[in-house]
Design a protein that fits this description.
The chain is built from two helices and 16 strands. With 236 residues, it is mainly beta. It folds into two domains: 43-150, Sandwich (Immunoglobulin-like), CATH 2.60.40.10; 154-230, Immunoglobulin-like. The structure holds 2-acetamido-2-deoxy-beta-D-glucopyranose (6 copies). GO terms for molecular function: signaling receptor activity.
């Protein structure tokens, strides 16, 4: 039922557009908004995905091939942005786009791409919700990917004198966790940057420490690291 309404609406809008070219973008926005209301009863699947910054990632609409696809729509909700909507009509081999500039997103509707959305390269601004809606004669379906962009922190270790060592995990996303061996007298501060990356700084002092080295362990979703420092003067 909704499918029929949807098609009728699209046809109607095509005629309206033909009559009034300057109203084109308005109708386009209207159609797409109507579309989201019409298919509110659909079958939904949601999953959380993550991707590392400066890599390429694909988000898929469906995992196995779908017979008799009528239409596929990607709705992209990013922080501080108007929703970006891209719709593809199978029978017309036609794509429409609203508010989707500069996201680094490409969408190839060709069958061999399986309606995958490609983000290349991934940036910190790609955090958000990517919803794919596909319409078939059997009903309407939705897949939502909640994308979290990961940024590996840059790790530094420096001796501050007086058996005080500072370990930093700079601009990681999410914040890195820092621990030490041996345990010292430490304090840790986190600083969140405008791009939602976090610098974690841990400063430790060892009073009466006899060992020859201290190791800072940085654990992060993009991989764990450790850095050590030797105390040469200490053995005297
Ligand atoms: C596209 O963006 C403009 C301005 O940001 C906004 O007014 C409009 O509602 C958006 N269109 C849709 C369909 O969200
Ligand atoms: C994304 O999809 C394209 C086209 O199918 C493919 O060439 C590429 O290797 C895929 N990339 C990843 C990271 O899966
Ligand atoms: C769809 O259109 C694109 C160009 O807009 C074309 O390259 C492609 O061959 C067309 N596919 C079909 C199935 O007609
Ligand atoms: C170094 O440690 C000594 C003794 O604990 C203290 O008197 C001195 O002020 C410290 N110096 C610095 C720069 O923290
Ligand atoms: C995020 O912002 C910080 C501080 O301005 C900067 O050092 C870092 O390179 C930025 N990271 C990304 C991935 O944009
Ligand atoms: C440091 O080493 C000395 C001698 O090797 C030992 O007596 C002392 O207990 C050690 N201190 C600590 C804190 O391990």
């Amino acid at each position: 039922m909704a499918t029929v309404l949807l098609l009728a609406d699209w046809r109607g809008s095509t005629e309206r557009r033909a009559k009034s070219m300057e109203m084109n973008s308005v109708w386009k926005a209207f159609d797409l908004m109507l579309l989201t209301f019409l298919i509110s009863f659909l079958v939904a699947v949601t999953n959380s995905v993550s991707a590392q910054v400066n890599t390429m990632t694909n988000l898929s609409c469906f995992t196995h091939s779908i017979k008799d696809l009528i239409m596929t729509t990607w709705e992209i909700l990013l922080r501080d942005r108007a929703p970006c909507i891209i719709a593809y009509r199978e029978d017309k081999n036609e794509t429409k786009e609203t508010n989707c500039s500069g996201e680094g997103i490409t969408w190839e509707s060709r069958p061999e791409w399986n309606h995958k959305l490609q983000i290349d390269p991934v940036t910190v601004d790609n955090d958000g919700y990517y919803k794919c809606i596909f319409v078939t004669p059997a009903g309407n379906f939705q897949t939502v990917h909640h994308l979290t962009v990961l940024v590996p922190p840059v790790v530094t270790l420096s001796e501050e004198g007086n058996r005080t060592v500072e370990c930093k995990a700079v601009a990681g996303k999410p914040a890195a966790q820092i621990s030490w061996v041996p345990k010292g007298d430490c304090f840790t501060v986190n600083e969140t940057h405008h791009n939602r990356t976090v610098t974690v700084k841990s400063t430790c002092t060892w009073k009466g420490f006899n060992g020859s080295s201290a190791t800072c362990f940085i654990s992060h979703l993009t991989g764990n690291k450790n850095v050590s420092i030797e105390h040469q003067s200490h053995s005297k």
